[in-house]
Amino acid sequence: MHTFNGAKEYTPAEIEDSLGLISRAGRPQQPAQTQQSPAGRYVQQLAICEFTLQLQIESLKVDSFPIPKQSRPARATGAAINVATHLLGASFPKTAANMFLFSGGPCTYGPGAIVSTKLKDPIRSHNDLLNDSSAAKEFKKNQQYYQNIATKAAVNGHTIDIMIGSYDQTGLTEMESLVDKTGGSVVQTDSYTSAIFKQSFQRMFALRGDVEESAIAFNATLEVKVSNNLKINGLVGHGTSLLRKTPTVSEIKVGLGGTDAWKLGSVNPHSTYALYFELAGAASNSPFATFQFILQYQHLDGTRRLHVTTVQKNVSQGKPSLISNFDQEAAAVLVAREAVDKTMRDDSVDLLRWVDKILVDVCANFSRFIPNQASSLSMPPTLNFFPQFMYHLRRSTFVQVFNSSPDETSFYRHCFLTEDCTNALLMIQPSLTAYELDKEPFPVLLDSESIKMNRILILDTFFHLLIFHGSQIAEWRRERYQDKPDYEYFKEFLDLPKQEAAEILIDRFPLPRFIDTEEGGSQARFLMSKLNPSTSYKELDNLNAFANGARGAVGAVVFTDDVSLQTFMKYVNEAIVKTN
Questions:
Q1: Helices (H), strands (E): how many in the chain?
Q2: 3-class state of residue 293 by DSSP
Q3: Rg of the chain over CA atoms, in angstroms?
Q4: Domains along the chain?
């Protein structure tokens, strides 16, 4: 048994020496292959240690050390991560490995501590990090501590996953580099006993599957080669730059720029990466540009594998051809990814102004209008939803941090940079489906007018799956009509959204929070916060109609100071026609 001081930051040499991983000649021992090797005492094959591991897990007990009143438990999370990372690095250097961190509360002791053990000291908030210089300084120090650990893990090809089961913040914002740099995953729940954690944890291992059919790749590296008429700006996603600069690397950096190769760590079917390029001017007279993506990784069976994808695109097209092939959904996700990356790397960036400038510039370049006449603006069909996506991006939890803790914001942003275009777009603009009696389910606008008293709505934000019952449906449900023999059809109607929700949950990782609520319920706020407030309290006519009982026609009144999509588009149109 070995004990380490939780207040000390150990070096790799100190840990290797303490654990006997350094030979008498001063050279590291060979990686653990057998039980007799020094490292084999700590890292063994599952077939050898499965029984012992299961026995240890089943015998775990709550910490018996007393916790003083009005105090938090002393947790040396930072020191534990440091020791575990160096132990794994000494045992399996440059070899694929996976480490799990189970965090049940904030680090309160030693390096990486985000708060003291005294409950009277609050855990840092977004406001503290923005306006309190001492809190911001401590945050940067802790962030740098975990970044150093993450870099060492990434170089060795090791992946770190973080499993959180706590009502309190645990310091994910400081620790996010551990998962971002190594390609790890984050599961954030209120408790380890919750269904969300249990099913998400099981799903993580289900992705691995059998050794031969595993969908997980480890210790992955991505290289990008392009023709001479292109330059590589960078990559936005979970990885680490390999700092390999070639003539095709641009001086303009986006995300992880200044290189054409990245260490990705763990890669699964959900992993998605955004790559940004620029035309190199007159470097080549060819109208075509060639991209080659070289992915190397270690399979679960230990073999090294290589995937090469080569694509050629016409880059000499003019505006008419370019806009006719414009993918506004992919463009919205790419803008959002760059916006998220900017706010994670530079707190001074005014994201709202940056997003607005992108929107106005794109629309001004491809729309038709008469200068200074907003009514003359005409957008091409392939661009008509792009402003709507930008509107919802401006209101999303990726840009707005109001009513979210730093850890929640980090969790949302981590998932957004992981998922593919479809799921990422769902995070920006959630889907809303309506259910009415004697009708098939149908999609409706993400708008306050979509709320009707005789309608059930299902909202999918990726992070939350919410079933909302209109006032009339909620009243019938409270009166238990679904339990009466003559109202069997009503029971089936109430079950339809639940069946749809169950189908959505099949492939979702991490598992979203499920919410069943009704109009006027406290948790209805999750729906109201996502809706376009076209019937807000500021619209006097709608409010009067609501007060006079015309509830079914006007939708719900949203009490918010946010501008509606209609008002937003009015200002955008005016800005576009004034650009020339």
A1: 19, 17
A2: strand
A3: 27
A4: 12-206 (3.40.50.410), 217-316 (2.60.40.1670), 317-429+563-580 (1.20.120.730), 431-531 (3.40.20.10)
Strand partners, 230: 279
Q: What is the pLDDT of residues 408-438, one digit of tens each?
A: 999 999 999 999 999 999 999 999 999 999 9
Q: Are 409 and 318 in contact (CB under 8 A)?
A: no
> CA–CA separation, 291 vs 277, rounded Å?
10
CA–CA gap between residue 429 and residue 289 (Å, rounded)? 33
Identify whether the C-beta of residue 196 lies closer than 8 Å to the C-beta of residue 189: yes
Helix H or strand E segment including 496: helix 488-504
pTM of the model: 0.92
Q: Which H/E stretch holds residue 516?
A: strand 513-518
Task: With beta carbons less than 8 A apart as the criterion, state whether 161 and 268 touch.
Answer: no
Contact call for residues 168 and 119 (beta carbons, < 8 A): no
- 94: alpha, beta or left? (left if phi > 0; alpha if psi -120 to 50): left
Q: Which tens digit of pLDDT belongs to each residue from 489-541?
A: 999 999 999 999 999 988 899 999 999 999 999 999 999 999 999 887 665 45
Q: What 3-state class would DSSP assign to 102?
A: strand
Q: HSE of 291 in the Cβ direction (CA atoms, 13 Å)? A: 16
Q: Model confidence over 202-233: pLDDT tens digits?
A: 988 887 766 667 778 999 999 999 998 899 99
Q: Which of 217, 340, 194 is nearest to 270 (CA)?
A: 217
> What average pLDDT is seen over the chain?
89
Per residue in 20-30, pLDDT (tens digit) is 876 544 455 55
Residue 576 above 90 pLDDT?
yes
Beta 304-314 vs 217-226: how paired, if at all?
unpaired
